Amino acid sequence: MSLNAQKFGKVAVLFGGASAEREVSLMSGNGVLAALRSKGIDAHPFDPAERDLSDLKREGFARCFIALHGRFGEDGTVQGALELLGIPYTGSGVMASSVAMDKVMTKRIWLAEGIPTPRYTLLHKGSFERREVIEVPDTLGLPVIVKPAREGSSIGVTKVMGYSGMASAVEAAGQLDADILCEEFIEGEEVTCPVLGTADGAQALPVIRIVAPEGQYDYQNKYFTDTTQYLVPCGLPAGEEEAIQALVLKAYRVLGCRGWGRVDVMIDGKTRKPYLLEINTSPGMTGHSLVPMSAKATGLSYEDLCVRLLESATTDAGAA
């Protein structure tokens, strides 16, 4: 079936931005831009770090594909601006984007809904004593994961192996966010599960199992090395993949997400219980990215995935 590219009108691909994930966003956005243009869609690059968002209205853009990652792109701020401009956009709305960007708020909602997530302690920059930092492993055990509450792409994340490493890890996270999340480390397999769609129409894509060098799935190994293995099919025991997909769908829906997203999960190696780490509402679309990889396993190409996401563009008002 041929695509009616004209129905989309003039499309802005928002990428770059002012967050710590700018470099990754540039890679994602260029990929999306090329894919949409290959389908005959009138798509144009738009970097909010270099241009005023009001230009979108003035220049007649009909919809936006958000390929921004992190703050000022994935946290509800750009979504709110587009709501005021009345321009449909891809991905979750203002509230879901804002909540999902905050790992602690996400955990609170998931826990209230009975969704398993690792135990945690929250430290507020400037309002905790050194003693509290040292005592975190007493509560959560070792190793412990320390990270900013509102960053992505593993930026500012430290795996602390002993008490002596706590202070520097907290300081590093505190340079990026006033809220510092200390999280129980789940020893086991790391997987991720993308979701496409909205509400009852949302569907979980195949689970991807991630095997990183020495278990370090950090910023470098996510985007700039070819030694990390991504297994699709994931090779999990029978029934585990389906259980994770069902859990991820619930987690996606209770936050009110729409369009697409990706949930990162750790499976306890001893109990086989899955623990949800976080949800990404504007996942990467680079050559190393996981949503396109999972979609491809279902027969959906990168280009067709981009078109499908663009078709789902709406506003909170339009989705109501």
Automatic annotation (TrEMBL):
Q: Where is the active site?
A: 21, 153, 289
Identify the metabolic or biological route this protein is part of. Cell wall biogenesis; peptidoglycan biosynthesis
Q: What positions does the domain ATP-grasp occupy?
A: 107-311
Q: Name one GO biological process term.
A: regulation of cell shape
> Where is Mg(2+) 2 bound in this sequence?
278, 280
Cellular component, GO, one term: cytosol
EC numbers for this chain: 6.3.2.4
Q: Where in the cell is it found?
A: Cytoplasm
Q: State any single GO MF term.
A: ATP binding
Record field: catalytic activity: 2 D-alanine + ATP = D-alanyl-D-alanine + ADP + phosphate + H(+)
Q: Which cofactors, by name?
A: Mg(2+); Mn(2+)
Alphabetic keyword roster: ATP-binding, Cell shape, Cell wall biogenesis/degradation, Cytoplasm, Ligase, Magnesium, Manganese, Metal-binding, Nucleotide-binding, Peptidoglycan synthesis
Annotated binding of Mg(2+) 1, by residue:
264, 278
For this protein, what does the record note about how its cofactor is bound? Binds 2 magnesium or manganese ions per subunit.
Query: Which NCBIfam families does the entry link to?
Result: D_ala_D_alaTIGR, PRK01372.1
Q: What does this protein do?
A: Cell wall formation.
Q: Which family does it belong to?
A: Belongs to the D-alanine--D-alanine ligase family.
In Swiss-Prot or TrEMBL terms, this protein is called D-alanine--D-alanine ligase
Record the organism. Rhodoferax aquaticus
Q: Name the encoding gene, please.
A: ddl
